[in-house]
């Protein structure tokens, strides 16, 4: 069952546009799901932000084939189809994630400890790539905040760092030196603790495909996609801002915060509009939404910051 909005937040029913499970699944599957929930006495709801105000009416989820066959995952190669084509040798299970740094209870946690089935939620989020393309993806996962709270965040913690897997024997892109692997990313603590920030373990109710970052990845829907580290093996809380892969490689093009902003262009292309994957050559472009459409939920995180700069 999908989670209800956090206490104090507006209900999804208050939003003029929202993404709904009836938009995600085939009708027969949707009706079966509704019948099951009714029999169990449950109600079907989506978390705050699943369909933010101002979303285009045609904002439908992408197909599973599109989601799993159009990806940036340089560990397997630089081509969009490389992760699906060359990911067959990658073994995502068994898996564990080391949680350490400024926490009271550091240690290695198995996947089913981080994301037990009873805690998994349904989140339909937009995904916006810094390259100018976008998707809508029905994720399954757990809020990152819960994982951090369970580890016991210490008072001095200000940042959360993520390290992706390093397996060059299974990931051919790691043998080509395009990036300095392992891939690393980071968030400010309040970003990491925000209710929208997700550790995803599935799509469309199925375990994550290798191409999507199996078996567990970060999803931060108001930021460009490169901020959402895939195949995470370590989460570290720290009092100093951690280095991040793309920002180290080219800080002018890939800012640390990387919030989606239609008014701030990439040095080599405009960010004012985006191409929706699956939308066709002529009908796929649409205006980019500030914070990818989640401004009502996250803009307060950046009060007083100059959004034309990426600190």
Largest sheet: 7 strands, mixed
Number of helical regions: 9
Helix content: 10-25%
User: Can you write the helix and strand succession as a string?
Assistant: HHHHEEHEEHEEHEEEEHEEH
User: What is the strand tally?
Assistant: 12
Uncertain ranges: 1-23, 33-56
CATH-defined topology:
Sulfite Oxidase, Chain A, domain 2
Number of domains: 1
Keywords: Metal-binding, Molybdenum, Oxidoreductase, Signal
Cofactor: Mo-molybdopterin
Pfam families: Oxidored_molyb
GO biological process, one term: protein repair
Summed up:
Belongs to the MsrP family. This protein is of the alpha+beta class and 311 residues long.
Description of the structure:
It is built from 9 helices and 12 strands. It has a single domain (50-302), classed as Oxidoreductase, molybdopterin-binding domain (Sulfite Oxidase, Chain A, domain 2), CATH 3.90.420. The longest helix is centred in the first third of the chain and has 13 residues, at 27-39. It has helices spanning 21-24, 27-39, 64-69, 82-86, 111-114, 144-151, 189-192, 245-249, 295-298; strands at residues 96-101, 107-110, 121-128, 133-143, 159-164, 184-188, 198-203, 206-207, 217-219, 232-238, 273-276, 285-287. The strands form 2 sheets. Strands 3, 4, 7, 8, 9, 11 and 12 form a 7-stranded mixed β-sheet that branches. Strands 2-1-10-5-6 form a 5-stranded mixed β-sheet. The protein has 311 residues and is α+β, with helices and mostly antiparallel strands. The termini are far apart.
């Amino acid at each position: 069952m999908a989670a209800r909005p956090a206490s104090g937040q507006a209900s999804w029913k208050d939003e003029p546009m929202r993404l709904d499970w009836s938009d995600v699944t085939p009708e027969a599957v949707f009706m079966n799901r509704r019948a099951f929930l009714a029999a169990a006495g449950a109600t079907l709801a989506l978390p705050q932000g699943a369909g933010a105000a101002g979303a285009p009416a045609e904002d439908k989820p992408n197909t599973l084939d599109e989601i799993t066959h159009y990806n940036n995952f340089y560990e397997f190669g630089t081509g969009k189809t490389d992760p699906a084509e060359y990911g067959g040798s990658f073994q995502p299970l068994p898996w564990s994630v080391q949680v350490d740094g400024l926490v009271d209870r550091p240690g290695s946690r198995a996947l089913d400890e981080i994301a037990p089935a009873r805690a998994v939620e349904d989140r339909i989020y937009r995904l916006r790539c810094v390259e100018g393309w976008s998707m809508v993806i029905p994720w399954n996962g757990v809020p990152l905040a819960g994982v951090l709270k369970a580890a016991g965040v210490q008072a001095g913690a200000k940042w959360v760092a993520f390290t992706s897997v390093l397996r060059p024997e299974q990931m051919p892109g790691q043998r080509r030196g395009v990036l300095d692997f392992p891939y690393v990313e980071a968030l400010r603590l309040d970003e990491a603790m925000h209710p929208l920030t997700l550790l995803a373990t599935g799509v469309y109710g199925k375990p994550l495909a290798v191409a999507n970052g199996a078996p567990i990845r970060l999803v931060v829907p108001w930021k460009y996609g490169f901020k959402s580290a895939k195949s995470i093996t370590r989460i570290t809380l720290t009092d100093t801002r951690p280095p991040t892969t793309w920002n180290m490689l080219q800080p002018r093009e890939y800012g640390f915060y990387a919030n989606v902003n239609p008014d701030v262009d990439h040095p080599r292309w405009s960010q004012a509009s985006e191409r929706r994957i699956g939308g066709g050559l002529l009908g796929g472009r649409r205006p980019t939404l500030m914070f990818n459409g989640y401004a009502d939920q996250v803009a307060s995180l950046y009060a007083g910051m100059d959004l034309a700069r990426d600190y």
